[in-house]
Please model this.
Amino acid sequence: MKLLSLHLRARGAALPSVVLGVAALTGWWVAVVGAVALLGSTLGGADASLERTTAVPWRWWRLTHVLVASVLLAPTGATGVGLLGLALVAAVFLGSERAWIPVVAYAVPALTTELPLWPAPEVAAVVWVVGAVLYSRPFSIT
Amino acid sequence: MTRVLWAEYRRGAGPVITGVTAVVSLLFLYDGGVDWPGPWMRFAMNFRAMLLVVGPVVVALAAWQAGRDRHHGVDELLTSTARAPWRRVAITWCSVTGAAWLGMLVTVAVNVAVIAPHGSYSGGGWPWTIAGTFVGIGVHTALGVALGSALPVRLLGPALGLGLVVVFEPMVMSLGGGTGQLVTLPYFPRLLGPPIQVWASTQLLQLAWFASLIVLLLAAVAVRRARRLVAPTAVTAVLGTVLALVPVAEVIGQDMRASELVCVPRVCVTRADADLLPLVTDAARRMLDRVADVPGAPVEALPSTRAGMSLPVSVPDDVRTWSGRVRHNDTELRRSMISELLYSPCARVDTYSLPAVVEGWWIGEISPKKASQRVVARLARLKQLPVAEQNAWVGRALSALRVCHPADLRSFR
Model:
């Protein structure tokens, strides 16, 4: 439990959790995009090279992190889950600090013009799977 | 200087801003992928309205880029260098603004290539609207750079981006198209109901206001002494006040010249759509020739917006593909010219398939969507009549559809 608490603190998960709760309860798209953008920053630690030296099975920690976030985002439907997948892919290629960039750059124009974010829920699911697989690889980030 | 800017562009958010701006503005202008973006003023207004969508993203990225020094813990180190503080802020602003301009230039180039070959109507002061869009994006980047430099907040970028969407989009939509306050913002709501005219004097004032805002925002985080902010603040306040007091009629209005009719014998379009004339004249004249002997039938083709009660054959203004060619084949084009005449007046009354029969007689074939057994049989019976009787029947049908009286229509059952 202490390890879990330390992990959440190290990832700065308090604010994202609150916004995630608001998004899940209201389904308001701004809250959903905001929650996922904030979640992006929790996908990596403050010092990646330091974390890499620790004897922690990061792969399982990351997978659990993604699954918990996905379950919490599930009430928002394909919108939230697909965006989380996008954040995961971005975290792998751009780093967790910049994971919000594709999320905001993709979601804000689409949603302000009232276009559907994903052509079909299946597309969102595929993006999530790709993101989860890439992010859960050993040393994808840390 | 160029080398520094290029390095700042490559190593910062520049490529992302360029890509997002180009893709989003193109998608915004070609949403649905079917509409021709011209004439020039319509393109300019839509291009300006695009700021509402691209602006929040650009602010978010500019704020992120401006906060990079702090993220990397080198802000104190950079403060100790011999460079003036305004120089770092200015370079950051130039790089993100230049990145956005690059993306916007892609969109402008694509649209110039699509619109220019058609020799479209170029009135209404459209270049001012385009210029305002470029300076307007500079206001966004200045806001992002200023807030990103000033506020040590983690994830300020996405918060700002989403905040702008929440605040500005409902505000602009609630202001509506013709409100004077709108001129103090870089936004225009999409499709104000063209043809629209803007005036050079107001637009110049607006550009000066945007430029003063940019200087003020950047100076607020760059100067060390507060007294140096007095002059930019005063200039911005004066320009903003003058601009807000400009009467609505001098901000934006209807372009009367664009609404004038341009005609060849029997066929007219508005001046704004004058380039459409060669594309539709032949089809419109053939439609008019077909009913030349029908009593009370239309004798001229007018723009659909001018149809009014005279119910002429109408020339729709939405018949072009994205590239400006006529979207429909000849039959569909001719059908679109009489759909308003036949279907609009009695839209809520049972017309007993009368419009479909008249349309079939006029065009020479029945639309597959309307080819019911009843319509086909009635059209066949009509065509068996002598020509004079056919013309008389169609004349009575057109009259009944125009008046739309249920008793008249019932007689055609």
User: Anything to note?
Assistant: Strands of chain B lie at 196-197, 253-254, 261-264, 267-270, 301-303, 313-315. The two ends of chain B are 80 Å apart (CA to CA).
